[in-house]
């Protein structure tokens, strides 16, 4: 198996600054580690079409997207795990009964169930995106890989109890990511490493949030950003500076990948 370093970068709060851009120091650092033979990979809850500007800025061509449900390596899709239609249908019906709007994701599209929701608007402003197209039935016509439910903090507990085959991971004050129970970014990373015969022994990950926990438990060298949650910092081998303070460059130096 190839033993070159493979480094997984979360996006929001990690590779992206608070202005939702890739810092110049990060672009330069990634260029240097690639020249040294390392393999940088994005590992994000976002869909591929949301992050094309990041791939262009960094030159990265591989991505574990939608919290491990969709994996691209050097521009080629090598793994995907679409959600089961009957399970999505049941959750959507319950959310509708409770007055909670949702979003549905696949590799090409994001759609939402309401055209004028304050929570939806705030969520996509937070990540620098536009209000998605309204289509409540995307999952009936195309495979989807990820959902969001827009609800107040704590309201997701009801859904977690009612739908144990999904996990509900809060990604903002406005809602939760939803994907199959027992899967995560780590699932997609395992698939990538296995299919491309890359060694787990030389893996690194940079992250800041709860959806990075399983990734940190998997890789050999987890690096928490200075702005990371305390829970994630407890799982880290290294703690670097924040995403607004050259945290990627400094973290790569901390773990010896960059001089």
From TrEMBL:
Keywords: Hydrolase. It comes from the Bacteria. The keyword Ribonucleoprotein does not apply. One of its GO terms (molecular function) is phosphatase activity. GO terms for cellular component: cytosol. This is Cof-type HAD-IIB family hydrolase. It comes from Niallia endozanthoxylica.
